[in-house]
Inverse folding.
């Protein structure tokens, strides 16, 4: 309704401006016309325009915030350049006794200096920010990797497909997907929002779709007064910008309270001037209830809030920036030229808009943002960073130069070699997820048909030995692996696949394979083979329909 009034106000404002220009034209032709009517229309038009602009101020926040506020140092130096050019221009005009010469000199000086400053800031601004950030942070080295306590079994793309398949309402769409940690599994919660422009203006978000690790889908019906996917003043970002105009809300996710209510969580970031750049830091957390109540919490209050107990509040964007800043530990010159002890964060997603590091990882030391960094110019893992998802504390695990672990990109290559009979034009390898067990880092991948209809296999790649372990499509088996049990079938060792009869070319791997087989009963193996055959039949059927 507020947006309807704003639209009506906008139409009236446009009408008064048109009327003003018509009256002004008549008054300019005939001075005997009543000029005060023209003046009154002008004042009313200006007042309505200003009021409309203030009403819609949150809509302009990204423009003011990202272009001007976070680049305050750039604009300050630009004003100094402008002032200096004007002074020099006036001085030249006074000495040469020609105003035109002075103005030309000032204009040329300003344009030249401004362009040079703009180029320098564009190249160096990010480096200055990350260097200042590194100097303000503490990075603590740890001796061992913390074990993972829960697993995100379904990749985001598969969970999204499951949720979409259950969505049978024409005026509803999903607009976001966020992980929620529950005991030993990670579920996905998809936001339900109005679909179609008219509905986005007039209707509210009406709840959430929850997808668990088994692919079971449930719906939470809950009207959100302010939510995602809604236009105008009912949009959640609009309201949060009204609360703190000069702060940045980089992400919104959800938690479910004991009473069943789903509450939006929105950490906000403030920027402080460290001339000539601004440096970000986490300043607080918003809680947005379905009733429209907004709680603005300090970091201390958020950490003690019962709804946020053991829930992440440190934003993903800031965690990634903290790790990126480590690349400047030896200075900007080193980062640009010599690259000694420099890291880089690799891209790990094979799909456009897919999940990238940092990954949220439940560990025995609490929830952590996980980043496996490469050495500059190489692919092996050089440092593993953990940013505490509650406090923001930064830890890292160093690897000796001669024993670097393989990264997710190379691990994926070992998977395709371990399944030489698969048609990789029809099967996708999705979303590398880190699993740490007994101090060893594994990369977990999901094999799925291109249509994302289900899970063909879950694969673990040992980052030290390059062994490829198949766990099938059983979520419970993945949990058993997480608890340290010997489960699964060895299907490859680095470049060498295991044959279909289970004979391994490497004697060491043959011993390992035998040990793995002897740990399970024959009946259980038969059941697993039946499940695998059924899944392959379903896959064959889905591919034949294309």
């Amino acid at each position: 309704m507020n947006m309807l009034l704003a639209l009506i106000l906008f139409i009236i404002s446009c009408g008064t401006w048109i009327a003003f220009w018509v009256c002004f034209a008549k008054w300019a032709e005939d001075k005997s016309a009543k000029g005060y009517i023209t003046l009154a229309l002008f004042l009313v038009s200006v007042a309505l325009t200003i009021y409309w602009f203030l009403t819609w101020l949150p809509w302009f926040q990204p423009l003011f915030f990202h272009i001007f506020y976070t680049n305050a140092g750039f604009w300050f130096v630009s004003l100094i350049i402008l002032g200096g050019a004007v002074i020099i221009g006036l001085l030249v005009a006074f000495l040469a006794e020609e105003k035109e010469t002075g103005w030309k000199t000032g204009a040329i000086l300003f344009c030249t200096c401004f362009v040079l400053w703009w180029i320098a800031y564009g190249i160096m601004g990010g480096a200055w920010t990350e260097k200042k950030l590194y100097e303000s942070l503490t990075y603590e080295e740890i001796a061992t990797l913390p074990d993972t306590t829960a697993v995100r079994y379904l990749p985001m793309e598969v969970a999204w497909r499951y949720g979409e398949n259950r969505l049978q309402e024409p005026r509803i769409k999903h607009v976001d997907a966020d992980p929620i940690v529950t005991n030993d599994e990670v579920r996905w919660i998809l936001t339900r929002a109005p679909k179609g422009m008219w509905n986005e203006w007039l209707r509210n978000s009406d709840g959430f779709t929850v997808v668990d690790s088994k692919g079971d889908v449930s719906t939470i019906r809950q009207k959100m007064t302010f939510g995602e996917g809604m236009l105008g003043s009912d949009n959640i970002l609009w309201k949060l910008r009204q609360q703190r105009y000069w702060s940045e809300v980089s992400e919104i996710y959800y938690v479910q309270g004991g009473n069943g209510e789903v509450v939006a969580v929105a950490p906000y970031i403030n920027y402080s001037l460290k001339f000539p750049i601004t440096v970000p830091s986490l300043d607080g957390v918003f809680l947005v209830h379905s009733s429209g109540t907004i709680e603005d919490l300090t970091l201390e209050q958020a950490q003690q809030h019962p709804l946020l107990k053991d829930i992440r509040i440190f934003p993903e964007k800031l965690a990634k920036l903290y790790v990126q800043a480590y690349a400047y530990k030896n200075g900007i010159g080193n980062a640009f030229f010599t690259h000694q002890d420099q890291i880089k964060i690799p891209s790990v997603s094979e799909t456009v808009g897919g999940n990238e590091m940092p990954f949220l990882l439940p560990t025995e030391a609490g929830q952590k943002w996980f980043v496996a960094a490469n050495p500059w110019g190489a692919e092996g893992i050089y440092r593993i960073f953990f940013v505490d998802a509650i406090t923001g504390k930064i830890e890292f695990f160093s690897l000796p130069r001669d024993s670097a672990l393989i990264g997710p990109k190379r691990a994926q290559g070992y998977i395709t070699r371990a399944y030489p009979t698969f048609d990789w034009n029809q099967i996708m390898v999705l979303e590398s997820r880190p699993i740490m067990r007994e101090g060893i880092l594994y990369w977990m991948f999901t094999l799925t048909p291109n249509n994302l209809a289900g899970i063909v296999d879950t694969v673990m790649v040992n980052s030290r030995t390059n062994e490829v372990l198949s766990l099938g499509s059983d979520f419970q088996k993945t949990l058993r692996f997480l608890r340290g049990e010997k489960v699964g079938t060895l299907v490859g060792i680095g470049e060498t696949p295991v044959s279909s009869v289970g004979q391994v070319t490497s004697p060491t791997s043959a011993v390992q394979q035998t040990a793995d087989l002897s740990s399970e009963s024959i009946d259980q193996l038969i059941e697993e083979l039946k499940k695998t055959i059924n899944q392959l039949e379903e896959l064959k059927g889905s591919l034949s329909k294309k």
